[in-house]
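User: Let's play a game. I give you a shape written as tokens, and you guess the letters that built it. Ready? Here's round one.
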């Protein structure tokens, strides 16, 4: 059997039984977390993040149009409601992201996108609306259509961004290792390989350098 003290490095373990190690830190209690499908609220609630257009500089192909919107109405593009499970090693934090419907120069509203500096996987579960999970490993770009009930798997090392391709809110649950972290500068430097624009057929994917569909 694996030695737990070795497996978890410097974190000291107190072995209560062979199958239920009791870590010295953190003292997170088992908990029930409820999601309200009408309001997107999480109970008990952790941090809530709202990203407006003004926070998304440098991400849309038509930065000029984004800047104009940001200096005017500055609409909310997406929000992230987290459970109280903290982003620390060995925990599994969860969050619900809600992306509003909309476009900037025809490009669908989307999240900033990030890499996990500690390259660890993540799962997304679609809760409502329609969208896409765009992943990029620096060379290849992969798109997964997302909707209620669809699980998207993000392997370690793939930058990921979510896009709302519909006319309603697109919502999904994310579950990720607490030590993963979020590196936003990687996407600003390397892009995401593709962009998602509105089209008569729904959405069309273009090379990242394209400024329209
Ligand atoms: C966590 C994760 C999601 C995103 C959220 C917002 O690792 O992938 O919870 O953090 O969808 O997207 P970003 O972080 O790119 O603004
Ligand atoms: Zn992530």
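Assistant: Ready! My guess for every position:
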């Amino acid at each position: 059997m694996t030695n737990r003290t070795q497996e978890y490095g410097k974190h000291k373990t107190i072995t209560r039984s062979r199958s239920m190690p009791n870590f010295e830190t953190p003292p997170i209690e088992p908990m029930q977390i409820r999601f309200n499908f009408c309001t997107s609220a999480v109970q008990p609630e952790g941090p809530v993040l709202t990203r407006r257009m003004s926070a998304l500089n440098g991400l849309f192909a038509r930065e000029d149009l984004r800047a104009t919107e940001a200096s005017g109405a500055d609409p909310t593009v997406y929000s992230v409601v987290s459970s109280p499970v903290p982003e620390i090693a060995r925990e599994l934090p969860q969050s619900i992201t809600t992306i509003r419907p909309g476009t900037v120069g025809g490009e669908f509203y989307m999240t900033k996108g990030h890499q996990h500096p500690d390259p660890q996987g993540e799962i997304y579960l679609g809760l409502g609306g329609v969208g896409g999970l765009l992943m990029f490993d620096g060379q290849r770009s992969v798109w997964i259509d997302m909707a209620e009930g669809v699980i998207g798997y993000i392997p370690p090392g793939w930058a990921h961004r979510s896009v709302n391709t519909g006319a309603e809110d697109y919502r999904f649950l994310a579950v990720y290792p607490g030590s993963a972290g979020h590196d936003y500068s990687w996407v600003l430097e390397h892009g995401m390989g593709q962009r998602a624009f509105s089209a008569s057929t729904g959405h069309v994917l273009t090379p990242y350098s394209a400024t329209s569909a």
